[in-house]
Amino acid sequence: MNASIRAGLASRGFSMIELLVTVVLAGIIFAAMVPVFASALRQTSQDSFRVTATNIAQDRVEKIRTLDFIDITSDNLNNSAFADNEFGTSFTTVNGKTYNVESILVVDAPKYKTIKVKVSWSAAASDSTTVQTVVMDPKAETVGAGPTPSATPLPNSTTGTNYTLVVSVTDDDVDHTSGVKVVRIDNGYNQTQSPSPQIPDSTNALSVSWSGLIGGPNVVYRVTIKFTPPGYSARTLTKDVTLIDTTSVYFDTNPYQ
């Protein structure tokens, strides 16, 4: 074969048959990879659903813990009309995905209650997540054991009546209807001792205070705020504080933004 013929064969490129074989082989390889990609996509979606469901369950638990002990009942925990519509049996995200929420009162004892919150996103048993919490009755007296127990004085016997509680927040997002709720929860609990709610906003530098309160080493107040960051659903935060002299409480309402 002379040089000109060899050069012509070398420069003629791929034949039609060679191209068809290449396309067929590529198609077989890609077809085999499709189930892998589909499975990875489904797993990613499931992980995303599970994370969202866990956040919903944890948020519901926090809301349950802000309730008065007597109000924690099976009927209330699954009632969309209870507590400003915070306890509905469904939750829809901003992208339109709906989750089913079920609050189960597992243990209803005189001094404590165990609640399990289950959030699911489909009928499949595996498509759900569960968060459990225990709520103690703040009015239940705790008796300590020991060889030489000493009597615990009543709160009013070791208290003063001119203490101050200061509550500050990060942003002007606190619900202007409910405001900051302060309730005394120690053994000397009395609903009439709860000061009126106040609203920390831009007019008071995001800080409010109550003076002339009963306080002391045995006096505990529960401070609850409900706030709605822009673009998010309502959130609730709670802190229990011992009121001694002037006591400051700070709520960081910014992490959700």
Polypeptide structure, described:
The protein has helices at 3-10, 16-65, 74-77; strands at residues 90-92, 98-108, 112-120, 128-136, 160-169, 180-184, 207-215, 220-227, 235-242, 246-251. The protein has 257 residues and is an alpha+beta fold. It folds into two domains: 15-137, no CATH class; 155-251, Immunoglobulin-like (Sandwich). The strands form three sheets. Strands 1-2-3-4 form a four-stranded antiparallel beta sheet, with helices on one face. Strands 7-5-10 form a three-stranded mixed beta sheet, with no helix packed on it. A hairpin with a 7-residue loop joins strand 8 (220-227) and strand 9. The longest helix is centred in the first third of the chain and has 50 residues, at 16-65. Mean pLDDT is 78; it is low at 141-158.
What is the ordering of alpha helices and beta strands?
HHHEEEEEEEEEE
Approximate shape: elongated
Largest sheet: 4 strands, antiparallel
Low-confidence parts lasting 5 or more residues at pLDDT below 50?
141-158
> In angstroms, what separates the terminal alpha carbons?
78 Å
Q: Estimate nothing, just give the exact number of structural domains.
A: 2
- Mean pLDDT across all amino acids: 78
Tally of helical runs = 3
User: What order do the strands of the largest sheet run in, or round the barrel if closed?
Assistant: 1-2-3-4
- For the secondary structure, the number of strands is 10
| Radius of gyration from CA coordinates | 31 Å
The helix fraction, in percent, is 10-25%
Q: Structural class, from helix and strand content?
A: alpha+beta
- Strand percent estimate: 25-35%
